[in-house]
């Protein structure tokens, strides 16, 4: 049996704490903390997942109000033992180039794109933890024959749990946490069969220029980025 590297051993009997993530330079780029255990996302990411996250980032950047920003590859410090990294989030925090996490009360919306290896965590563990932290809106997006389907949840404050607010196919319109109008079919290219013919909905042209929120450079940079995600390995 191969011994764990020293840096993968918890520094205390209680496990890892949220602030420990900032002191692990050897950890993989995408490392989360769930219930005091490190979760590494290391396996190859599907092109569909990465393309969807990129295009959804751009779509949201074009529509967020001036006081909000779209973020990815950022963690949320839910409590001392939980610091997940969602695929996307919308925050009201002021921009600070040195920060590495957001507090729950700075986050309006969290989005997770479901993959086979993350389905249980996204649909049960994170669904509960984001709600307990008081984040008002949560989207889970699944791949339905190449087309994104968005499961929308809203926080029910009396119970402190998420309540389903709708399942959206083809087109998503919301008024909270801000006015959102997204052509879901346009977020991913149509799949093709062996003859090269499209077998999914045709992709509609989308804007890639800046919207009223003045996010042009961010949007253009996002389109050029390769987003990495993967199979999860937990280290308690």
UniProtKB/TrEMBL annotation:
Residue ranges, annotated region (Disordered): 198-218
Ranges in coiled-coil conformation: none
Domain Putative restriction endonuclease: from-to ranges: 19-170
Domain of life per record: Bacteria
InterPro entries listed in its UniProt record: Nuclease_put_TT1808 (IPR012296), Restrct_endonuc-II-like (IPR011335), Uma2 (IPR008538)
Signal peptide: none
Pfam families: Uma2
Annotated PANTHER family: SLL1072 PROTEIN, SLR1083 PROTEIN
Protein known as: Putative restriction endonuclease domain-containing protein
């Amino acid at each position: 049996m191969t011994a764990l590297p020293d840096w993968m051993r918890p520094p205390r009997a209680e496990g890892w704490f949220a602030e420990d993530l900032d002191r692990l330079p050897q950890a993989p780029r995408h490392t989360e903390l769930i219930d005091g255990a490190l979760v590494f996302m290391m396996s190859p990411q599907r092109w569909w997942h990465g393309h969807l996250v990129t295009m959804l980032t751009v779509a949201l950047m074009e529509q967020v109000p001036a006081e909000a920003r779209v973020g990815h590859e950022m963690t949320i410090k839910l409590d001392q033992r939980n610091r997940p990294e969602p695929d996307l989030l919308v925050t009201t925090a002021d921009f600070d180039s040195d920060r590495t996490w957001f507090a729950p009360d700075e986050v309006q919306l969290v989005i997770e794109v479901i993959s086979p290896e993350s389905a249980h965590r996204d649909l049960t563990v994170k669904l509960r933890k984001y709600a307990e932290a008081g984040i008002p809106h949560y989207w889970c997006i699944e791949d339905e024959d190449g087309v994104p389907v968005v499961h929308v949840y809203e926080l029910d404050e009396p119970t402190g749990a998420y309540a389903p607010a709708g399942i959206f196919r083809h087109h998503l319109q919301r008024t909270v946490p801000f006015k959102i109008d997204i052509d879901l079919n346009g977020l991913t290219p149509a799949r093709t069969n062996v003859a090269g013919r499209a077998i999914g909905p045709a992709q509609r042209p989308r804007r890639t220029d800046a919207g009223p929120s003045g996010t042009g450079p961010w949007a253009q940079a996002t389109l050029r980025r390769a987003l990495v995600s993967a199979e999860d390995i937990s280290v308690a």
